Give the backbone structure.
Amino acid sequence: MYMEKYIPSSLRYDDYAFYSRCGNSGVLLPKVSLGFWQNFGADASYDNCRAITRLAFDNGITHFDLANNYGPPPGFAEEMVGRMLKDDFASHRDELLIATKAGYDMWAGPYGSWGSRKHLMASVNQSLRRLGLDYVDIFYIHRYDPVTPLDETLQTLVDIVRAGKALYIGISRWPLDALKYANEFLRSQGVPPLIFQGRLNMLDRAVQEEGILDYCSDNGIGFISFSPLAQGVLTARYLNGIPEGSRMSRAGSLKPEMLTPELIEHLNTLNAIATERGESLATMALKWILEQKGVTSVLVGARNPEQLKESLKCCK
């Protein structure tokens, strides 16, 4: 690159092996990012959540991923992170890349969800209050709204950046045609999309099959994989069925009927391959994602510091 020969070798970003460039931007994301979905709700221990977050930061994880509705209840994860930002990270704000989202059900009434200007503006203001921040680094539209005109949603995202409430825009879980339109619209306004967040793991490759990952790679858009371990299915936990106390044993987003005999057999086959490689199934699953063309980072959750330490092994 033209600029690179003028950058002192001590400052070249290639030296930061734990970080990847996010699309065609100046942003470097850690290969492992920390997500705050489900494990940072009102029933969680603040001290445990604080230990997870401090461990993440101490190991180079500078990207924290939230959404307005993360909890439960909705908004609680942002409140908890806001408390931690005050307690532990006030002097490190400029080292952190903090993301939040809007678009899923948040409050009652016709403006509490989806992609209207009314919802997005209200939501970003609420998120900033809960986090105790003047701005977030990335503001995502959390899901595709099939009813609201795309121009309304996208112009609102542009206005949020221009108002200084977010530095970058992200898109999550949009179909390819809508992503293409969004990319063209946002670039025409001088606010190109920084990143796409989609589900990618060894059991779900839809973003590859649909061409989304290739499109992001070809158009300078970063990609971050959520649910890289399929909410824990791609670990050794479910090799022999549903253990007591596991996420699948509780009412929630991971349904027991998902764990079919065929899936258990497949998981054991994958686990045998991981064992031959001298790795855990989780480590192999995360490494597989990071090796896919166009992937910038994997977004992991953790119920305790030990789970986060296990996830970090994929970078060694």
